[in-house]
């Protein structure tokens, strides 16, 4: 798995360099990796278009990172910087490639490009190293734990979800809506059911927790799976589904889907 290769590389470097406290500052990491034989610089410039996120360029003598300071979300900007650091450490320094430009087009090609997946894994391992993150929660993939890690590591909710769900090997997925309209979903390798790409119903909207007014929830509602997924696959039927939705700014609604063995039954031939 390319993401895990990247995460392992980042965690190994952090341990070698003596980073043992959160949050991990990307600029401090770059300073620690950089030396006279291979200097690395990181600069922030305001680009008018958010289509461009970041860039990593270099050769055998050194490397430079450029980040679009106009990325509106500071935590997304932080992850972008860590992603470009991954390109430098894993690809430029090793001679694999000398030039990476990351934007919306590259995100669209993400699953077809193993180097982008390695850099994303590196960013996750750099900002959320397993040995430090595992101490922060009880291991459950719920909004309360995700929010806690997000605050401690200065990373987005989605990035934390991806990292925590992998660390816990949990059958979970995230569905993202905006103004009730389906936008996309974030699957994980342990979630075995197809997600319905449908808009939110009034009942689903009412079940959301508005986290600008209430605390991030740790609990889930038990619902009929058919409202969220195709409930039959690989000889199994999902009889119940655990759901937890939060309402964020700009009309965004993030929903966690989860199940356990008690929710499954075998389909008889």
TrEMBL record:
**Superkingdom as given in the UniProt entry:** Bacteria
Q: Which InterPro entries does this UniProt record tie to the protein? A: IrrE_HExxH, Rad_response_metalloprotease
A matching Pfam family: Peptidase_M78
Record domain IrrE N-terminal-like: where:
62-165
This chain's protein is named: IrrE N-terminal-like domain-containing protein
| Source species | Pseudoalteromonas gelatinilytica
């Amino acid at each position: 798995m390319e993401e895990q290769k990247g995460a392992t590389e980042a965690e190994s470097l952090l341990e070698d360099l003596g980073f043992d406290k959160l949050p991990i500052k990307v600029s401090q990491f770059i300073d620690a990796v950089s030396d006279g034989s291979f200097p690395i610089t990181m600069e922030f410039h305001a680009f008018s278009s958010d289509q461009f996120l970041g860039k990593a360029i270099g050769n055998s003598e050194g490397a430079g990172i450029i980040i679009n300071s106009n990325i509106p979300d500071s935590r997304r900007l932080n992850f972008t910087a860590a992603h470009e650091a991954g390109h430098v450490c894993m690809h430029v320094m090793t001679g694999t490639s000398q030039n990476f430009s990351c934007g919306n087009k590259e995100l669209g090609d993400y699953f077809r490009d193993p180097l982008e997946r390695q850099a994303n894994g590196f960013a996750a391992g750099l900002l959320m190293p397993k040995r430090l993150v595992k101490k922060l929660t009880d291991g459950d993939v719920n909004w309360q734990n995700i929010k806690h890690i997000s605050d401690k590591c200065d990373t987005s909710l989605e990035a934390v979800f991806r990292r925590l769900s992998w660390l816990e090997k949990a059958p979970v997925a995230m569905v993202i809506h905006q103004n009730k309209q389906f936008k996309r979903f974030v699957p994980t390798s342990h979630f075995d059911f197809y997600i319905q790409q449908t808009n939110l119903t009034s009942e689903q909207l009412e079940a959301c927790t508005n986290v600008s007014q209430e605390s991030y929830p740790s609990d889930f509602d038990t619902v009929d799976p058919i409202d969220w997924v195709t409930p039959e696959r690989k000889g199994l039927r999902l009889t119940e589904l655990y759901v937890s939705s939060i309402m964020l700014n700009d009309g965004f609604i993030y929903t966690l889907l989860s199940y356990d063995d008690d929710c499954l039954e075998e389909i008889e031939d």
